[in-house]
Design brief:
It contains four helices and eleven strands; from the N terminus they run ββααββββααβββββ. Pfam families: DUF2283 (PF10049). InterPro entries: DUF2283 (IPR019270).
Amino acid sequence: MVDRIVSKGGVAIRLTDERWAHIIEEHGELTGFRGAVLETASSPARILVGSDGELLAVREIEQGKHLVVVYREQSEDGFIITAFLTRRIRSAGEEEASMAIADIQEYLKLLPAVNRAPQHAVWLTYDDEADTLYVNYKKPSHATDSEMTDDDVIIRYEGNQVIGFTVLHASKRVKKTA
């Protein structure tokens, strides 16, 4: 089954069953939220722009808790990449400022979260259609909170423990050597 909505930009956005399965596998807290994900993508309270042009539709679903839907618009077609719940939303000023920060500084911001990550088995899943890499320290992973870094990496938490990362536009991060 494919659900389709129209974004604020007037572009048809699709959410397939396969994409939804990826989302709830990595963000188990969203089980039962498919309708809310579609509603957020079509009627967000706010839209942020990611560093590679992806759009982040944001809607508060309860006091202090937001649903973020990451999607891409491609001319007349688009698709949902992922979604997550968070209590941490950057302000528009922080979003604009983050675009100007040097790449190395953005990666350094991720290091404290990496250091808090458990030091044991890691599960990696690459989603080719969405160009998204999922890194999990726990299977199944059921995040209770998430946050997006300035360089479009979603850090997933269970309580205060980092249980995984979602890396958007992963293939563009590969360093090419001569």
